[in-house]
Amino acid sequence: MNDYDVIIIGAGCGGLSSGALLSNQGRKVLVIEQSEQVGGCCSTFEKQGYKIDIGASIIEFPQVIDLCFKRMGTSFYDEVDLIPVDPTFSAILHDGSKITYPISLEETRKQIEKISPKDAKGWEEYSKKIQGFLDAALEGFFVSPAGNLTDVIKLFAKTPALLKYNRLFFSSYEGIMRKYFKNEKILESFSFHSFYAGLPPALLPGHFAMLPYAEHAGIYYSKGGMIGIPRGLQKCGERSNMEVRLNTLVKKILIKNKRVKGVMLDDGTEITTNLVISNINAKKMYFEMVGEEHLPWLAKLGLRSYAYSIASPMLYLCLDYEPPLTEHHTLMTRPMDKTNDYWNSHYLKGSFPKEQFGILSWTTKSDPSLAPEGHHIIAVTLAPGAYHLTGTTWDKEKPVLKEKIIHYLADTHLPGLKDHVVLSELSTPVDFEKRLRSPEGAIYALRQDLPHSMMFRPSAKSRHIKGLYLVGASTHPGGGVPTVIASGMIVADLIEKYEQ
Amino acid sequence: MKTVTIIIALIILLFLIYLCQPKSRKMFILNLLTQVKYLIPRYFT
Fold it and tell me: CB 3.0-4.6 Å disulfide test: which of A11, A48, A421, A487 passes with A471?
């Protein structure tokens, strides 16, 4: 008799969604989390009365998340107190001009028309194309396993409409956007979106061109901080007796005859089970918790070949004035070619850019209760930062860099900032690695280009260890809050199918 | 001999097509090509 039917390592959104679904199926589930709170990258910490989001600062694709809650007989909107965000974002372009995109597709078209009438037509065509793709993807791509060729064939057989959009998979994000938009300003306003999936516009697969459009289906902020979303999943699981154990570290996955037998904690305690779901980085899990001795040479070669995804330095600013912004999300952008150049000349070479670009997330705009009255919080997501810096380290650069960024923002987008910073904290890739135990601070676990996607990403059902399953950004459909929640749905289905 | 010539001609043709692509397209193609060797091992993860 095992202690639990299922043990889940990591209480990120993928771990919690799979745990909640499996406990709803009547299984005895234990979720083990190394940190003091749930959520992973989609979480919130409190400091001196300010509630600060660690990473994610809005939710896109609510329809994907809602699918998960619906399977438990409830809805995303009933379980999580959601605040609609409208407009989707404002982009401050490199020349200082600003474009704002409301949720309404028609209003957005009008905004584009003011800058480029030709691109307004492009927006209509782009919207039509992406809506068709999303309709098909929601039925198949997001919620079906893609661990091997058979899975992929089944996925396309289940939703043949996806085949119509094959060009999206074999073009780049930039290629697709340039097909519909010709004006460089419009293109620039969408350039940073590619980093929402961790790559520059030239390298990101074209199906991610759905990102700017998908925001128009509604984007939301969770009242009280983004941790509300994983807590909503936790609440649903706990109603069916799912247990969540915080501040507990799993050291090893116990394996006998290529079959999961349980887990061993850091203090040597062993907990028995026949099913383990890993919600941590697959490379780390296979090499450190499973052990190379249980893996065939080809799998070891494959795992070693994976590149970690980007790390995203974040600057958290707590202020005693209302910042001169207008939207929850303001994107500081660069033209598409310059964004690609940044990747080659700074990110890959381990250096910092002089000019900053990224996202200013003014969370107190949507939820003033996050800070003391009259105070505000801005989380600045900076351009991706390499984990390995050339000729220096993050710890050495951190204090200088923080000051430089504050000066830059005060001189550009946030006048008056310097006199109103009550609290500031720069979270570097090294800090993310420590806080989330994510190797190299990778926010999407592994890169998300084509050779790291679908059947070339670690399989949700382990090919080598029976009873071992993967959720989260390491497996299909990849990184991002809705997609990791979708990975939890996929694994719950796989377990229902194979582990009766 | 004839087959080898055809293959070489095709490779040269593909290379010339690659050279004519815009910079960002080249970046996309190069990224795929440099990872082709990993696809089989990755399939077995």
Answer: A487
